[in-house]
Write a structure and sequence with these properties.
alpha/beta, 3-stranded antiparallel beta sheet, 9 helices, binds zinc ion
Amino acid sequence: MSADLQNPAFHNDDKARETLEAIRWPNGPFCPHCGNSDQEKIAKGEGKAHRPGLYYCAECNGQFTVTVGTVMERSKIPLSKWLLAMHLMGASKKGVSALQLQRMLGVTYKSAWFLCHRIREAMTPAKRGPIGGQGRTVESDETVIGGKAKNRAYAKKPPKKHSVLTLVDRDGDSHSFHVANVKARTLRAAMVKVADRKSHLVTDELLSYGSIGKEFAGHTTVNHSANEYVRLGGFAHVNTAESRFSLMKRAVFGTHHSISEAHLPRYLAEWDFKWNTRKINDGERAALIAKGIEGKRLTYRPTN
Ligand SMILES: [Zn+2]
């Protein structure tokens, strides 16, 4: 997808539909009801009597469009605005707030809010592989987000703090979670689910890492307070996780201000997605989001 804001797909719903069809169906449409992809048995509805983009499946006698079975199904928001929102959210380093999207797209706040969360859903991979592996270095770092009263204009008490754990393969992907606390047992439970223990682990000197570190192929700790990031010839640093965190913190304090516990996993998925796609261009990233809309409708539950 061209990332140029002049791309007609961002302004014209027919073009947007064609773009989305090309991304989702590179080998021609398939029926989301029965899985039929035999092009002989799929007919496109032509002419004014048909809804645009409607297909008929001769295998199950069903009808479908490119948005059936996706986070976009039954949405009243025009397709061109969906694509533009995907591009804006994917291209923004600090994240886009619903308010910002409301202004940029000329939609209601409620629509913008739903767009944001459904697009985050599309950014969430259906399946994730382990972080790290043999011969790879995994950084683990924890941070606390929220909790600053000065970012809230009217609230009397500071918003709740949330601990977030991020595991980053120094040459690969990151995976972040909300954790109840940073005690050894909690961190271990989260880490063994995600990190490949054949990796070399690099962490700060938090005592909680002491025993879990022994389960990895190796464990190096970095003393933050002494600023010894370059110990061992530059190896012992957690800069990768830290730059990942700085991106996230800028998003929280600069864009979203406060994030509720219920929505936190989706924001974390957005930051992981941006980190994991940092080497591709904005157009490729937007296309990846558009591909990610598939099969998510059933798992999506609006929380308000
Ligand atoms: Zn069918």
